[in-house]
Amino acid sequence: MERQQLETIMDELSNERKIFHSEADFQHSLSSKINELSDEYRVRLEVPRQLDMEKPGKLSYIDIVLINQSGQEIPIELKYRTRKFEHIDTQFYDEQFKLKNHGATDLGNYHGLKDISRIEDLFINQDNVLKGFTIFLTNEPKYWLNKENGSNDDEFKLYQGKTFPQGKFDWLNETKSNKKFPPLEIYWEHHMDWKTFSQLGNHQFKYLLTEIK
Predict the structure, then answer these.
(1) pLDDT, tens digit, for every residue of 129-144?
(2) Under 8 Å CB-to-CB from 79, ≥6 apart: which residues?
């Protein structure tokens, strides 16, 4: 699976689904579309894997894993972070969407970067992992617009055009709410390039696709 193929799959998905109820809805819809458009892989959801970055014995569950006929894997981690938005989709029937306001973009940024770190961990430590991807889909413009401004999550921000160099990333200050989220280490350089997924009136969804190989 090449990056361009996955971008094409996202484009095809957006022709059918402009919006999702939840991350699980997004996960199911994307995996079904991959299954429909690519016969090279078996598609599996919530696959348990041991990560070096986690405590020994603790299993992590990977959102989507593509497995080819040789048993080689491509793990994909997803995020779907939303701000409050209501929409009625009339494509099939009057389906009502009521998106939550997740807020806490500092933790959203942290977990977005953590997904990249998790896929790097698999790529480094598991011989059968060919490459991996992360996809962060959101209707919250703060993720692609907000740059460093002295806020506690500056090092984790995912804004358009940012490049994460190899290195360790941490909160500027430890607080009660973030002390359980340790620093993250990244082993490759990653450039943030957001793409439009859908437009509903003046409301936009964008996604950030990162490839690890």
Answers:
(1) 999 999 999 999 999 9
(2) 23, 108, 111, 112, 115, 134, 135, 136, 137, 138
What are the Cα distances from residue 75, in Å, to 49, 129, 134, 156, 188? Answer: 10, 8, 8, 22, 17
CB 129 within 8 A of CB 123: yes
Rounded Cα gap, residues 22 and 78, in angstroms = 11
CA 206: distance to chain centroid?
A: 11
Q: State the distance between the two ends of the chain, measured CA to CA, in whole angstroms.
A: 11
Block residue for tokens 């940024």: 109
State the residue range of the domain holding 96.
Answer: 3-212
Is the Cα dihedral 200, 133, 9, 193 positive or negative? positive
Q: How many domains does the chain have?
A: 1
What would the pLDDT profile of 14-44 be if each residue is shown by its tens digit?
Answer: 999 999 999 999 999 999 999 999 889 999 9
